[in-house]
Write a structure and sequence with these properties.
The protein has about 325 residues and is an alpha/beta fold. Helices cover about 40% and strands about 15% of the residues. The strands form 3 sheets. Strands 8, 9, 10, 11, 12, 13 and 14 form a 7-stranded mixed sheet that branches. The two termini are about 30 Å apart.
């Protein structure tokens, strides 16, 4: 809701908007461009771009080369095989892209698994488009770098600087409000799980978000890539809360995957988080793994989970659930 209000704030302002043709090849790029009031300029998108609403008529330019309906373990094995052969996980519809002939392509160079590789986008642009198409690459590792990316996109698209700053300041006001309230609260030990089979601890901007929301991230490091972990690592730390935020999975898919995980290993039941019913499932696809404006919503989700007596932003049952409520 807050994201839509901020977009609306921008759209209501009266200034000249430059008409341009934009292709977005990762969901966070689509959200950033829309956040800056340029949604109508998007003429092509990735198959995963589904927010804001009303994108169904915009042509999809990518598709996965794997079966994304499989379990997390099956998906992992498929991706490993592709990457071992130095291939891209995604196919680009080059002919459609050529027809669109965009002014800008907004993509990323952060992760080979999250979207079409940056090198492939560069090669396609050089071979099939030309000098008039400019590539804007998102590459955040920390929360501030997400804001920097938004500013960089705004500058490239020649979005009015005053209004761009106002939009970002609105996000920071929301963050500051959470920081003030969590400053004096006890910080529980938190584990954020970015992949379920095999287990992966969330890194990059997630540990920072966890801290802002009033928790202490025990296995992730700010600005450092997510990394594989073993169950013994979790046992040794015995977190107070475990939050599952797998990339690409919605609430129902994640909930099913967590059930399978716990059924494989009864030792999960001995963890403090399990005993205290503090296992949480989130929509990692829509929130945590999209480094754009809705990371602030994601921090609100974490704050609601860690400190339910202090925060209620209305995200429960939409962005997160307690695993035991749907067990």
């Amino acid at each position: 809701m807050a994201f839509r209000q901020e977009c609306s704030l921008y759209e209501r302002t009266r200034f000249k908007v430059i008409t341009m043709k934009i292709v977005t090849l990762i969901p966070s790029a689509t959200e950033i461009v829309a956040f800056l009031g340029q949604k109508k300029s998007i003429i092509g998108r990735s198959h995963e771009c589904d927010f804001p609403e009303d994108l169904s008529k915009i042509i999809k330019l990518t598709e996965p080369k794997i079966n994304v309906e499989g379990t997390s373990g099956e998906i992992h094995k498929q991706i490993e095989v592709i990457l071992e052969k130095s291939l891209s996980v995604y196919k680009v519809h080059v002919d459609e892209l050529k027809k669109l002939n965009p002014d800008f392509i907004v993509t990323q160079s952060h992760c080979e698994v999250c979207a079409v590789s940056f090198s492939e986008v560069e090669n396609i642009t050089k071979e099939h488009l030309g000098k008039n198409t400019k590539i804007i690459s998102l590459q955040p590792n920390k929360l501030q770098e997400v804001f920097d990316d938004i500013r960089r996109v705004a500058k490239s698209l020649k979005v009015d600087n005053d209004h761009n700053n106002k939009l970002i300041n609105n996000l920071k006001v929301r963050l500051d409000d959470i920081k003030k309230k969590t400053k004096k609260l006890k910080k529980p030990k938190i584990l954020c799980v970015e992949w379920i089979d095999p287990l992966m601890a969330a890194g990059n901007w997630i540990p920072e978000m966890t801290n802002i929301a009033g928790g202490e991230d025990i296995l992730g490091k700010i600005g450092v890539d997510s990394h594989w972990i073993k169950f013994e690592d979790i046992q040794n730390q015995d977190p107070d809360f475990i939050v599952f935020i797998p990339c690409g999975f919605n609430l129902n898919k994640t909930n099913d995957e967590v059930k399978k995980l716990l059924n494989k290993n009864n030792a999960w039941g001995k963890l403090k988080a399990f005993k205290n019913k503090n296992l949480y499932v989130t929509d990692g696809n829509q929130y945590f793994n999209r480094p754009g404006p809705r990371l602030v919503d994601s921090i609100e989700i974490l704050a609601e989970i860690f400190h339910s007596n202090t925060f209620n932003f209305g995200h429960k049952n939409k962005g997160w659930i307690n695993f035991f409520d749907k067990r």
